[in-house]
Specification:
Radius of gyration: 28 Å
Number of strands: 17
Helix content: 40-55%
Low-confidence stretches: none
Mean pLDDT: 93
Length: 416
Amino acid sequence: MTQLVKGEIVAVGTELLLGQIVNSNAQWISQELANRGVGVFYHTVVGDNLSRLEAQFKESAQRSDLIIITGGLGPTDDDLTREAAANVMGKDIIQDDEALASIEAYYARNNQQMTPNNKRQARIIEGGTLLHNRVGMAPGFVVQQDQKLWVFLPGVPREMKAILEDDGFKYIEKYFKINQTIQSRMLRFIGIGESQLEHDLKDLIEGQSNPTIAPLASAGEVGLRLTARADSEKEAVALIEGAEQEIKKRIGKYCYGSDQDTIQSKVMQLLQEKGLTVSAAESLTGGRFTDSLISIEGASTVCKGGIVSYSNESKKSLLDIPGLILGEYGAVSEACAMSMAVNVTEKLNSDIGISFTGVAGPDPSEGQEVGTVYIGIYVDGNQPIVKCFHFNGDRDMIRHRSVKKGYELLYHLLKS
């Protein structure tokens, strides 16, 4: 088994640091390298500054086997990637005649006049090997030094991808004699907190080696990323499946899916399988539940619609919530949530009704603290269910967590 290659991706460009452009290059390159058995240990973004670029390249050379650099190869004076790397390597920058001819041909094909500064894009570090750019001007190039492989690429995603797919990945695989693959799977859990999940899997997480197990938390749910390295995809998948089986023995009841699954897509799938429809009555969530469901292709087969009844007046007029309930118990109450769930089911002729009412903030309401949320579920012909929750966070987070919790309740109801 080949030793794992330590990879690093350095993105160059002040516009990335300012947030004007998203660094999608690093994500794509990391995924492609993983499929080829290269582990990416670092993502770095550096602005267009010579001294900072030099400092970063020195650090990269000390810790990584493969350094892939995107950006800073253009025609302007602030494109400093070559200069910084050449200074660190102690090499000269030379003009590559083949690269220059390719750039001149590009302008000729597009009937454009080439300005003198575009010759800068034909420069590479001495000893480098050209990587052709079939979709743009600036070529990429690779440099070998001190058992490190440096790969220089344009920052334009379309050009970067084409260069790597045409020549770059082949060069990397040949240089490092790669015969491994890295495979990952994300297991998705809901209804269990990150701390409880880590407690239940403590020995597995602490004893991990191959595959590795990494908990990842987000609002309302938790993920576990399993990553395995092996000589073939089949072997890596087998390692992942073995770990997954052990994990599910312990906390499988909380696992709703994997990889690209979402809780709303799984709820929709269960509704379709059971031939059921759902409608929603939403107060504090303001239509978020319905919107997230109908955002999925095919939702029209299971979603009858939603009613946003934010004020007490709309609860009366749109959902026929009795004034007695609103007067005696209030809008933020078990009684109101129950009535909303039952009435929306009847009004929209669905099999299931779900309701959301509560206090999203910033101030308490009806004597209820911020974060108090009631979620009601009614299945036609059965006794309504209402759950009370207390969510932390700002107004937006409380609303988000309420919707996630609603999906969680529906998921477990439909799975039972």
